[in-house]
Design brief:
Blueprint (H helix, E strand, L loop, with lengths): L5 H32 L1 H37 L6 H34 L3 H14 L2 H18 L3 H23 L9 H25 L1 H5 L10 H35 L1 H37 L6 H20 L1 H4 L1 H8 L3 H33 L3 H25 L4 H4 L2 H19 L8
Length: 442
């Protein structure tokens, strides 16, 4: 079981944070390259990329469920159960990836064309999605193995994989978008192909780590590489709510950007600038989110409930410190951050004003996310799903009012972020203080 001190917490969280930082830099690089290729392509990649990530979150949510279960078995000292969970995770994610691919490849391109107000952007989104959809098959393998290593506390494996994925993605972007060094100039299609090929490289590296690891033999992981009904039911019970809440959160954001696209290209481009930088703020949040789930699950499995508040306080402190390190630019020099993504002066001033406005909302989220992740780690994923559903419901209502009914300026539209994070925090804290959440059996 993981020790409860800052050194051990950071040893788990730092690789995940570096991984998140690398992925954020890749997103910034992608956005910067495609923005210099075409503004329409920049807008299309932003919206189409959100659609891909929305469906990807279904896989990630189920993998989070597997991480929670495996971490709980480690805390309970039941190594014989871990292989069954791992094998079942692979087959569940494989079936899920196939279904999501059907939706993304065959249905989404035409669906986008029916509701989009900008037909050129809609056409480019379809091109991107058709290429990007194949990455779901590689992602499901990567996520299955990643869930195991994160539950074990070996987050450095995820870091190395992210480094390989990110570096190859940046290089392939440059070659395939602009057609350098004899490669064809593919534009937005090249951006999608680069990301998909990079996902293949990441998957292969994760497979190598698994095959060479001592844990593969220790837990007989491949021996149980079969469909086990009991483990599948357990995974679906814990992972399905996480899958649905991850999907709903990203689907709501996708809807937000769809309404902005219908409002006008200026507001959409400004918001895509914000979205590209937004993920830097989530670097420590993502890193400590995975750490929180692992710690909470392990300590509940070991019946050490009295240490949960200590875990929360330590992780909250570290989250806020690292958020100031990664996202201080949103307050101090937002114009420079925007120009890294999109140098077009027409969008810089408005984008910078919005970035400074929402910076404190993300600080708020960094603090309250530890409470929400505590609910995840305890295994009360059905309740966390209901909390998420209520929060995105409130968020969607205000998005509709701000964009469709009141037609506010894009600056004021982005204040919905305070509504989302505020509601999520209030409900999460109330739940932890008024229920017997720590008695959940996983």
């Amino acid at each position: 079981m993981l020790a409860l001190n800052y050194k051990t917490i950071l040893s788990v969280a730092l690789p995940m944070m570096v991984t998140g930082f690398i992925q954020s830099i890749v997103l910034l690089t992608d956005a910067s390259m495609i923005a210099r290729y075409s503004t329409h392509a920049f807008d299309a990649v932003g919206n189409a990329g959100l659609m891909y990530v929305t469906l990807y979150m279904c896989l990630a949510g189920m993998a989070d469920g597997a991480q929670i279960i495996i971490a709980r078995r480690i805390g309970q000292d039941k190594p014989e159960k871990i292989g069954q969970v791992f094998g079942s995770t692979f087959w569940v994610l494989a079936c899920l990836a196939f279904g999501l691919f059907i939706v993304l490849y065959f249905l989404m391109p035409e669906t986008i064309r029916t509701y989009s107000a900008q037909k050129e952007i809609a056409h480019l989104q379809g091109i991107y999605i058709e290429q990007r959809s194949f990455a779901l098959f590689f992602a499901m393998i990567t996520l299955s193995i990643q869930a195991f290593f994160l539950a074990e506390g070996k987050s450095w494996v995820v870091l190395v994989t992210a480094l390989l994925t990110a570096s190859s993605n940046a290089l392939l972007d440059y070659l395939l978008i602009f057609g350098e060094f004899g490669f064809p100039e593919l534009g937005i299609k090249g951006a999608a192909m680069a990301s998909t090929i990079a996902d293949v490289i990441g998957m292969l590296s994760m497979c190598c780590f698994l095959l060479l690891s001592a844990e593969r033999k220790k837990y007989n992981l491949l021996k149980f590489f079969k469909f086990d009904l009991g483990s599948v039911k357990e995974l679906l019970r814990v992972g399905s709510p996480l899958m649905l809440q991850g999907f709903s959160a990203l689907a709501t954001w996708t809807l937000f950007f769809t309404w902005l696209e219908q409002k006008g290209t200026f507001d959409l481009t400004v918001s895509q600038n914000i979205r590209s930088i937004y993920f830097l703020a989530f670097v420590p949040i993502w890193g400590f989110a995975g750490t929180t789930k692992t710690y909470i699950s392990q300590y509940l499995g070991a019946q050490k409930m009295e240490l949960i508040p200590v875990i929360q306080r330590k992780i909250q402190l570290l989250t806020m410190v690292f958020m100031l390190c990664t996202f201080h630019g949103a307050i101090l020099y937002p114009e420079a951050m925007i120009r890294m993504v999109n140098p077009a002066e027409a969008y810089v001033a408005k984008s910078a004003d919005i970035l400074r406005l929402i910076a404190f909302s993300i600080m708020l989220f960094g603090f309250i996310s530890v409470y929400f992740q505590t609910i995840h780690g305890s295994g009360n994923t059905l309740h966390s799903m209901l909390i998420e559903f209520f929060t995105v419901g409130v968020y969607s209502i205000f998005c509709f009012l701000f964009i469709k009914v009141w037609a506010l300026d894009i600056y004021w539209i982005w204040t919905v972020e305070y509504i989302y994070f505020g509601v999520l925090g209030v409900i999460s804290i109330t739940y932890l203080r008024t229920t017997n959440w720590q008695n959940k059996q996983v």
